[in-house]
User: What shape does this take?
Amino acid sequence: MKALSRLYAFLVFLFLYAPIAVLVVFSFNDSATKSRSVWSGFSLRWYQRLFGDRMLLDALSNTLLIAVAAAVAATVLGTAAAIGINGMNRWAKRFVMNVTNFPMVNPDIVTGVSLMLLFVFASRFLGNSLGMASLILAHITFCLPYVILSVMPKLRQMDPNLYEAAQDLGCNPFSAFFRVVLPEVLPGVVTGLIMAFTLSIDDFVISYFTSGTTQTLPIFIYSMTRKRVSPEINALSTLLFGAILALLLVINVRLSRDKKPGKAETGGIGI
Amino acid sequence: MKRTIAALLVFALLTAFEPAVQAAQTGREASAAPSGVTINVYNWGEYIANGEDGSMDVNAEFTRRTGIGVNYTTFEDNESMYSKIVSGGASYDVIFPSDYMISRMIAERLVQKLDFRNVPNAGYIDKAYRNLQYDPKNEYSVPYAWGVVGIFYNKKYVKEPVNSWSILWNEKYAGKILMFDNPRDAFGIAQKLLGYSFNSTDPREWDSAAALLEEQKPLVQAYVMDQIFDKMSSGEAWLAPYYAGDAATLVDENPDIGFAVPTKEGTNFFVDAMCVPSSAKHKKEAEAYINFLCDPEVAAANMDYVGYSTPESAAKKLLPKETQENPLYYPPKAIVDKSEVYVNLPQDISLRIDSLWAQVKMGGAGQSGTLVAVLAGFLLVYIGIVVCKKIKRRRELR
Assistant: This one.
């Protein structure tokens, strides 16, 4: 029985990770003709090419710029929103949480198309066509609920009297927030930030509709599919996979550290 | 008081971001364009020489010579390019649609007439590629590349001569045949086999082409586009129709692979051309870009990298000898004469094609009925669960 369950777990992981393993292996393929199926020796040629491809690097830098901007903005807005929501009465809280959760269950394509229509409409008045700005706004929009969702539990855990105590001890509302509330919820804030960042890098559908004349990495890769996706993309995907894996590890370590009793209340500030 | 502060904070945040973003954008543009103008170019993916393998970095060269910056982005098929232009979300200056899409965009006034005084190099374009059906007076487009559709086959397994589309219906190769995953190209093959025109407006002809494709379906391994490269070179599939421009990479990779254009029925001859959308903001610069790409030296560099065929004899002469004489790139006149271009079809026909194609791929009619039933089932179960939870929660609250 145990062997059977081990086999089952093994199969699950095999199907999950085999495609990624193939992708990583073929990023080292020494093939002059961009083959993705015939192995012809080890080389770092595609990694070398990757850093010489201006179009690809442009797309990558767009993606990273958007991800950083959107993650930071969504985290600031989301944390503020979470604190506001936490102070509401029960019914208002439930209503607002439902409203903010809605974009998460909404299919990406609906979000994407509706945002595009909004931006096209707005650009008529602002005279600005779609591009970097609209992409960042769109990414903030879909990252926001995730940030709120990861900050809320921390706020609920916090003793509401702490804020008042801080004020009693001479803090004004601002310094009470930055000195007491923020350090208390910081683990949730950082998790939200990392989550927003990875989600933003991942996104294809919403970016596809709101990108205007700016190209992000996923869109660039997708546009190669009539000819053939170059192994440069394998190399880049390998690097990205490694980076995202590292981020996920950080999140998970943090989560498991928070769960340990006692430590979470005092030592949850550092990464 | 608190609310005004919050509102001010939000406002400050938004305004703080906007200039930063704009600065980032203009920063990049400024470095590319001393003259301050940057044109937006929208081309097929992997369809221009980019400096790899010692080729010319065409966009950088254009900026170097003219001072005009190029914001170069790419699309994967005509339809997605079309929807982007139609949606009004992006203002492009140069686009590269294919033949039938050009005629559609002309009809819908999405592209504008070119001022050929600004495109003197268009004179290099050979007569054979001017005034084609999709742009009869040659006012809107300048050809960029062309090619024909043919059949890739694995010489190890396919011994008979490949000269007719009917080989894709041969049961001997069941499970080893690949087919196009787009309706126009897939139907085209069936139409040629039946002796029809690609641009037929007779719905019955489309119906019988669909019937032929359904007949072929059990023999087809998969409907694919770029995956044919991997499937053919690894020997997983033996027969696949595709665009001749991509032949060289496949043949280089695996000497067992051959390419033939079915001479019996004729084939599709396609042209990708450069146009300026009506919404373009920099028409003059766009024309300068088109003119630059028509420079025989640039055109040759592009085609040498991309693998498709140039419509300029002057550019062809600059290509390596083997390429010029290779029938893969420059098929004999007899083949070209027997081939046909796609033109845009009336609305009712294209709608019919879409539904016929869905039918072919999903395998027979009646599928949509089951699909609706399954979705409705899911919805019911979902609503049931939600309602149950609601009731439970309400009880707990009491």
The domain at 52-267 of chain A is CATH 1.10.3720.10 (MetI-like fold). The two ends of chain A are 41 Å apart (CA to CA). The mean pLDDT of chain A is 87. DSSP finds twelve helices and no strands in chain A.
